[in-house]
Amino acid sequence: MIELSGVTHHYNGSDVLRDIEFVQAEGEKRVLLGCNGSGKSTLLKILAGLIRPAAGQYRYRGELIDPARLKDPDRNRRFRQEVALLFQNPDTMLFNPTVFDEIAFGPRQLGVSDLEERVQHWAATVGITAHLKRPPFGLSGGEKQKVALAALLVMEPKLLLLDEPTASLDPRSTGWLVDFLADLPVTTLVSTHNLSLAPELGSRALVLGEDHGLVYDGAIAPLLDDLPRLAAANLVHSHRHRHGDLEHRHPHVHDW
């Protein structure tokens, strides 16, 4: 479903991604790990067709994704319908007067005949039916995240990209999202730096290093046991602990 080859990107002359190569099969659930600033958000935006990489190629289901192809109305429409990106901050995705209109916005652009049915289905699925007539801006962070998610899923995407989706959620909302994504029959790539959640979000991991290159692509279980590799990617840290007169250091994961 996803194939990247030599993808590089930079801002103001500084590398943000460097020579990224990986493939992801249809139906696979993967986790994108990396410390803040490693390039996770930029990579997801490239996969969503929002940014053109400075170098390299991105193919979605075998088709090269570049500005020329996305200028074709039919190809652009199909790609935008099949590939969805949930931003870390849901406020950046909400702009309609009511929750109903927010979820209905995409289907309205497509002119679907079952708009009401789709909106009601996804509102019920994520648990926001009671808020359909409310403006989305007055909802809690977790509720806004559900509205933004429903507004993507109502388009019935085949690839769902999620950028730090639990960063602003409380424990209950985080648990709900993890369970929801596990049951969702859609290819997913979820970015996080929360190592405790990572194995719940996918069975394979991609790790971006501080040099903005891909430093790991494989099963997540052995990665979580490889403390030197995690430390090199700035995903664990070490600090002093005191127990009475004794003092020692050991690694800790960056879970917050």
Topology at a glance:
Layout lengths: L1 E10 L2 E11 L4 E5 L6 H8 L7 E6 L2 E2 L2 H4 L2 H10 E4 L12 H12 L4 H12 L14 H13 L5 E5 L7 H13 L3 E6 L5 H4 L2 E5 L5 E6 H5 L2 H6 L3 E8 L2 E8 L3
List keywords for this structure.
256 residues; alpha/beta; Rossmann fold; six-stranded mixed sheet; four-stranded antiparallel sheet; 10 helices; 12 strands; 34% helix; 30% strand; globular
General description of the model:
The chain is of the alpha/beta class and 256 residues long. The strands form three sheets. A six-stranded mixed β-sheet has the order 6-7-8-3-9-10, with helices on both faces. Strands 2-1-4-5 form a four-stranded antiparallel β-sheet, with helices on one face. A hairpin with a 2-residue loop joins strand 1 (2-11) and strand 2. The chain has one domain (2-253): Rossmann fold, CATH 3.40.50. 36% of the residues are buried. The protein has helices at 40-47, 67-70, 73-82, 99-110, 115-126, 141-153, 171-183, 198-201, 220-224, 227-232; strands spanning 2-11, 14-24, 29-33, 55-60, 63-64, 83-86, 159-163, 187-192, 204-208, 214-219, 236-243, 246-253. The chain has ten helices and twelve strands.
